[in-house]
Amino acid sequence: MTGPSAVREFPLPDLGEGLTEAEVLTWLVAVGDTVHVDQPVAEVETAKAVVEVPCPFHGTVTALHGAPGETVAVGAPLISVDTAPARPATGFAEPGVAVPEARGSAEGGGPVGGAAPEGTGSGAVLVGYGTAEERPRRSRGARRAPRPPRPGAGAAPRGRVPVVSPLVRRLAREHGLDVAAIAGSGEGGLVLRRDVESAIAVAGERATPAGAAADAERPGVERIPLRGARRTMVERLSRSRREIPEATVWVDADATGLLRLRSALNEAAPDRPVSLLALLARFCVLGLARFPALNSQVDADRAEVVRFAHVNLGFAAQTPRGLLVPVVHDAHRMSARELSAELTALTDAARAGTLPPGRLTGGTFTVNNYGVFGVDGSAAIINHPEAAILGMGRIVRRPWVPADAPDTEDAVRARLVTELTLTFDHRVCDGAEAGGFLRFVADCVERPELLLGDL
Q1: Which of 36, 333, 392, 403 is 20 to 30 A removed from 74 (C-alpha atoms)?
Q2: Where are the residues of the annotated region Disordered (predicted)?
Q3: Shared-domain flag, residues 311 and 440
């Protein structure tokens, strides 16, 4: 006699950094396959990175919850595995007599249940899910915890509106929708994300003129879903515009000396090159030590400005997944060469989709070189919840009169000039401090030799 089925559902684990969902990119197994403990079963994309998800069970795959391109909420089933042993069960069966299961058959503690052998266990630990001590077994009369909702159930009961996740509530709140007025399609009337998105679409159709709606459906009109990192960036930038009263100041700077210094540094150590962005980043770190108000953020709930003694430097990186802002932690402890190496490593990881989620959060100040796009300047959007972002435009040859030049026509020279812009949160400081910081960085660009000991 074969033992009873022991199908176990492995939910999408908590991937850290406050992430609430992930998009299934690729399944690495199929229904009917045998999986082993710690074997990657799916590749998913979060708002932070692309990661492989290992399964903590050994057994046969019975179901995959979600097709490629679909979004799965944290805690919702990702894969189902039958962990029942293939061999016949020992002992005897008698009506009314319960035969105890072998240790590990239900909780993954031993080989009978199809999990890791005794004394080993799963080694692949994701944030919020991983190897744990065996939990006490539930009694037969204990009430099972409700499973995450699935589509296709009836209407919601009266009373508090059931919602599958805080993300769904936030989505409804951001679009001015009352979840109590939305019909849930999940089990027990649960309001799922698709229900809120449908309500948003209906509200949009009501607010859109008929002509505009028709134009959107014409041939040749492309609709591009906002997913993963792109959607996160959209939400962050939108929040920045809503909450931060920003102001922008800018100044032209003679970058001839900056380029000369970079050439000299790279000639001295060609195996450890220094980029312009790294030099600019180093100037910003030195400036933040003199003007700490810009290395802060506003805690609106407590009506406080939070200033940081450390500098976690974010920088804009264009990737195939959209614009990302990797963060160099403790940038104030690094030299220009160390910063350059870290910027390069993080940029490569971001473009390859292997950047850990923790390297995309925690920034206190952002620097950007948008001169690589061939533009002179930009009134950038602050990377919420930071308080400032500094950028450098393209370096071009222009007529220039040095500040200490004599008042004659002969003082005009052709110099390599760039525009520096600083966008700052006016709640953390006034224009005097912001202007002082920007002027300090501009002075560093124009006369970097004065800072050689600090580079």
Answers
A1: 36
A2: 100-160
A3: yes
Q: For residue 14, give its domain range.
A: 7-113
Please give the single-letter amino acid code of residue 15: L
Mean pLDDT of 229-240: 83
Residue 333 backbone phi and psi in degrees, to 5 = -95, 0
In a domain, 61, yes or no: yes
Q: What is the CATH number of the domain that holds 68?
A: 2.40.50.100
Alpha-carbon span 52 to 40, nearest angstrom: 6
158: CB partners within 8 A, 6+ apart:
none
Q: Which residues are catalytic?
A: 426, 430
Question: Does 208 reside within a domain?
Answer: yes
| Percent of the chain residues past pLDDT 90, beyond the cut | 42
Residue 226 inside a domain? The answer is no
> Distance (Å, rounded) from C-alpha 382 to C-alpha 246?
8
Q: Which two tokens stand for residue 381?
A: 């959007």
Number of domains in the chain: 3
β-sheet bridge partners, residue 43: 26, 52
List pLDDT tens digits, range 122-176.
544 444 444 444 444 444 344 444 444 444 344 444 445 555 455 677 778 778 8
